[in-house]
Amino acid sequence: MHDRDYYYVKIIKRVLAFTVLICTILSGILIYFSSNFSENMMLQMMEDNFLDNSKIYSGGISGYLQGRYNLLNTYAQYPLVKNMNWERVKKYFEMEVNLTNISNLSEDDMKSIKRFDNLFIVDSQGNKYSTDEENINVRNEEYFKNTMKGKKSISNIFISEKSGDLMATMAVPIWNKGEIVGALGGITNIETLSRMIERYKVKHKDSYSYIVDKNGYTICHPNRNFIGSENITKPSKNINEDFVKYGLYILNNDGGDLEYVFNGVSSNAYFSTISNTDNWKIVTIIPNKYIYGPIIKKTNKLLIIGALGILVIAAISLKGGQFIAIPMLKWNKDLEKKRKKLEEEIEYSNLKTEFFSNISHEFKTPLNIIFSTTQLMKFNLKKENSKFDITKLNNHVDTIKQNCYRLLRLINNILDLTKIDSGFMKLNLENGNIVSTIEDITLSTVEYVKSKSKKIVFDTDVEEKIMAFDSDKIERIILNLISNSIKFTKPNDSIEVNIHDKDEKIIISIKDTGIGIPKEKQKEIFERFTQVDSCLTRKTEGSGIGLSLVKAFVEMHDGKISLKSEYGKGTEFIIELPVKLVSWENGEGEGKKSNGKRNVEMMDIEFSDIYS
To answer: Where does the Histidine kinase domain start and stop, copy by copy (predicted)?
Structure first.
């Protein structure tokens, strides 16, 4: 090689080395800023999600309290209450607070029915008349001052020595002829708030939520010793002086987040104001390890992979000669998972939005009908010289009763879904004749179906089939499917309930000649909160819960449910249940006979959203 050629080669090597060095540095800078940008973007998305969750949490608590206020406002509308006639009001209030036992209900269900431990009214001078006989003057109490200003109030949070549950005083103003004449309130069990905030957290041992009042005192907290004693704006053995400024920031703002260190744990606090309260705040604590740890770990991994890639490319470029390879970075699998998870969260958020829209519609419709009916009844009763029309009154009462059944059905379905999700829903299996049970259920609906100008037929190829089943769940399944058939069939259509014995399994078929289900909707018909019709255009009432419960009840029996449907021609639901028996050793035995009265009551509940 000539000296001149050697010189050129040396120059080319230096140019290549310099080019590779510049490209390596630029690539490193680019990867660094890209990873930093990705990290900040993912952190911002997570923080926005946590803030949104905080608002959802506060909305859930506000809705729970609003239910109690609605009941008090209902009582405050009674004429006897408006006239402050305590001697006559007392006996009705005592009936409410002395509700102690209803069969077939758990202790938690009893607490949800018995809303107040005592009820009271307070006149404009502060004289309190209570069902617990504690008649004192409360003019200096906060709830009395608020109600006399026309505000609803919740205060005096304490833990019951008797039950250990969280209790509070709730009160609303009593209006009479445009003036506030007093207050109506009661001591209510709000232990549900403690259970609610136990779920308001992320999956980390140091994550939790708590509620503070307008003065900073703890109302709900996982550590029950803090309730009523700890104040986030006052130093104590549990709250250091550095934390006080964060406490003041929380009280002085409607919502937001802040970062702080507490007991050696670096965390973020996301907080939101709870409506229907006197400036209460819910605060959710999330450790920074949960927020930043996984993201930093993944971005660091990406940086290391990028740096190694650049070094490999530099080595290949130097050895390869004249061409510099620019690597194509592949998508990181972890980033792809995060993208899919984000899409799932968006889809779930949309599902929740649709569900709450449906639930709001389902609650508002019967409540509006009940309210309108009571107004109409009151108007008719107040007419001067009007005759008492018992037929019209019975129609009004029937309307109220049907819409109460609708609310009860919706609440029962939501409770059942909650029990199923939490694993508390159990089967009460008993050996019995499933054929006669289904026949009794079907026959109990004949007159009702006939009143809708439709007919229902029961047929079976076996008269007796002894097997283990939960009669209550089977009743819910059959009535729900018959209810759907009634809603989606026209006058003179028919509904068939058939049973086929296949030795090791029993086949139950509910078939109708109604409008059918479009093919594209058949796969999602059993999904929770799903309806064939749009929630804004549907022709029939429903929350989209019924069929998902039916599927859950069938699967609890180790069975399966499917459907055959042709749009415009009808639908057939097919249930397959395995034939098995339970042993006498476990306390189970031959099934109970069908209770006709209970069938009618269950039918009234399941059919309560049918109007045409």
So the answer is: 358-581
Residue with token string 């879904």? 417
Considering only residues 382 and 490, tell me which one the structure prediction assigns the higher pLDDT.
490
User: How open is the CA angle 27-30-35, to the nearest 5 degrees?
Assistant: 125
- Beta carbons within 8 Å of 448's beta carbon, 6+ residues apart: 486, 603, 607
SS3 per residue for 26-93: HHHHHHHHHHHHHHHHHHHHHHHHHHHHHHHHHHHHHHHHHHHHHHHHHHHCCHHHHCCCHHHHHHHH
Distance of alpha carbon 357 from alpha carbon 538, whole angstroms: 13
- Range with lowest mean pLDDT among 100-114, 236-250, 286-300, 404-418: 100-114
Cα–Cα distance between 493 and 454 in angstroms, integer? Answer: 5
Of 191-200, 376-385, 403-412, the one with minimum mean pLDDT is 376-385
Q: Mind giving me the DSSP string for 264-279? A: TEEEEEEEEEETTSSS
Measured CA to CA, the distance from residue 96 to residue 117 in angstroms comes to: 9
Helix (H) or strand (E) holding 372: helix 333-382
- Specify burial of residue 259 (Cβ count, 10 A radius: 0-12, 13-18, 19+): exposed
The pTM of the full predicted model, rounded to 2 decimals, is: 0.44
d(CA 278, CA 127): 23
DSSP-derived secondary structure for 225-262: GGTTT-BTTS--SSS-HHHHHHHHHHHTSSEEEEEEEE
8 A C-beta contact, residue 124 and residue 182: yes
pLDDT (0 to 100) of residue 356:
58
With a CB cutoff of 8 Å and minimum separation 6, the contacts of 154 are 65, 143, 168, 169, 170, 171, 276, 277, 278
Q: In the prediction, which pLDDT does 344 show?
A: 74
Helix (H, G, I), strand (E, B), or coil: what is residue 594? coil
Instruction: Please give the order of strands across the beta sheet that includes 255-262.
Output: 218-220, 208-212, 280-287, 265-274, 255-262
DSSP 8-state symbol, 389? -
* Nearest-5° Cα angle at 373, 372 to 375: 65
pLDDT category at 140 given cuts 50, 70, 90 is very high
Of all residues in the chain, the percent with pLDDT exceeding 90 is 28
Dist. CA 578–CA 557, nearest whole Å: 8
How many residues are present in the chain? 612
**Rounded distance between C-alpha atoms, residue 236 and residue 473, angstroms:** 53
What's the first-to-final CA gap in the chain, in angstroms?
Answer: 101
Which candidate, 573, 568, 567, places its Cα nearest to that of 519? 567
CA distance 428 to 470: 5
Q: Which amino acid is at 375?
A: Q
* Residue pair 267/287 in contact by the 8 Å Cβ criterion: yes
β-pair type (455-460, 430-433): unpaired
Written as one string, the DSSP assignment of 454-516 is -EEEEEES-S--EEEE-HHHHHHHHHHHHHHHHHT--TT-EEEEEEEE-SSEEEEEEEE-SS-
Q: Tens digit of pLDDT for each residue in 545-568?
A: 788 889 999 999 999 999 999 888
Cα separation of 99 and 225, whole Å?
30
The two structure tokens encoding residue 550: 């039916």
C-beta contacts of 185-188 below 8 A and 24+ residues apart: 185/72, 185/119, 185/120, 185/121, 185/122, 185/143, 185/147, 185/153, 186/72, 186/97, 186/115, 186/116, 186/117, 186/118, 186/119, 186/120, 187/116, 187/117, 187/118, 188/68, 188/115, 188/116, 188/117
